[in-house]
Description:
about 5% helix, about 40% strand, four-stranded antiparallel sheet, single chain, 2 domains, five-stranded antiparallel sheet
Amino acid sequence: MHTSDVVVESRARVTLHFSLSLVDGQVIDSNFDRSPAAFVVGDGSLLEGFERKLLGLQAGQRETFVLSPEHAFGQWNPANLQYFKREQFPQEMVIEPGEVISFSDAINSELPGVVQAVEGDKVTVDFNHPLAGKDIHFTVHILQVEPAV
């Protein structure tokens, strides 16, 4: 089997260029103008929904897929809105809509939240992924596929 015949499968090493964009064309991330990315399928580098779209592809292929929120960054969940009192933040901290604030969860992992609103002494913070609820255009150019070992 020639390496050009190798297809993307679990544990294969894949080198690729990719682009993520919104339906309106706004580019979220792309490495087409940088060095390609390399990862092993199943190592957690890519969300499972993105990996599934690569399965069966070979080096040289270019594809564009549309991933629904369920297969990309999830649906927006109102339960991920949290409400805080302004006094719970340091007085000198800038608290205004759009600000990203880092919180610690129960196991001290960093958890970013985006300030949605400040009304009086009430601060609303959204812990949904910023791309939750959005369809994502995923464009790939597979450069190399090395078989699983």
